[in-house]
Amino acid sequence: MIGSYLSGTQYLVILYRILGAKIAPDVILHNITCFTDPHLTTIGNHVRLHMGAHIQCHTFEQRLFKLVPVTINDSSVIMSNALILSGAQLQGQNRLLPWTLVMKDDQVSAKTN
């Protein structure tokens, strides 16, 4: 109910920090549903998540529930409807274009689109 009031504000970042996410200063999150597992998410400084971008730190594989942390390093931009799956690491200064999928355990090199 209060999610619509927190969207796009620094209060949303504070809420996710309370829930266990490691979020650096100067991060903009546009939606309360952008994380599924905040306690497994690490986000560096100057990161932007556009509307509809999602970070998912869990998978169901062969009827097993697996949790793996996701790391997004400094100065990355995750555009709308991009999805980052568990175990992925963005090395920094990355730009994920709309509708991009970063697969499980992928390593995205620094300064790439």
UniProtKB/TrEMBL annotation:
This is Uncharacterized protein. InterPro entries: Trimer_LpxA-like_sf (IPR011004). SUPFAM superfamilies: Trimeric LpxA-like enzymes (SSF51161). It comes from Adineta steineri.
